[in-house]
Amino acid sequence: MFISFEGIDGSGKGTQVQLFTDYLRKKGVDFIYVREPGGTPFGEQIRNILLVDRTLTAKAELLLFLASRAQLVETIIKPALAQGKLVVADRFADSSVAYQGFARGLGVNIVKELNNFVTDGLKPNLTFYIDIPVESALSRKKQLDRIEEEGKEFFRKVRKAYLDLIEEEPDRFVLVNGEADELTIHNFIVETFERRKKQNAI
Ligand code: TYD
How many domains in the chain? Predict the structure, then answer.
């Protein structure tokens, strides 16, 4: 079972991942939590570069995200799934499609292909996409990292790319209203997770 969380910066995704993993811990579920970029020692070094280096070109940036993902999939995610653990990922391949493929204009199809290459076709069974209008998202962020300093237009594109992905894969994605209050969102996520588990869909 592999669950990912996606959303534009400032969508409240981080809070929801935290609440969800707290819930799993309380329930005694055997799970691991990973974040992207990062999640491995190598990946965390890449993360430091990605979040601060202003000289990165779009292609160099994409390839660093992919390198981090390749390492994470092979050394952490696959072994955990093989042991029957639940994997919870704060961002995964869809982020690269939305941010680099569409918003940065590198091409959605090429990024999907590269994702496929680095993950060996591994996809989450369930992806919670926390949806929020760009204005609300940006107004929540106080300190912006390099990527977050992009303008509103950039994040409009990121959001559009996610919404397109949801249309393409409606069974994998669950659209979550990120403007509801924290607890309402959390309860919705937990109910959806429990229902899917019961249906044996994941
Ligand atoms: P992070 O601090 O983890 O942000 P968040 O809390 O929003 O997840 O920073 C990750 C940043 O990297 C975020 O702006 C999204 C971006 N990103 C990409 O552009 N492509 C990717 O493939 C991934 C995984 C993240």
Answer: 1
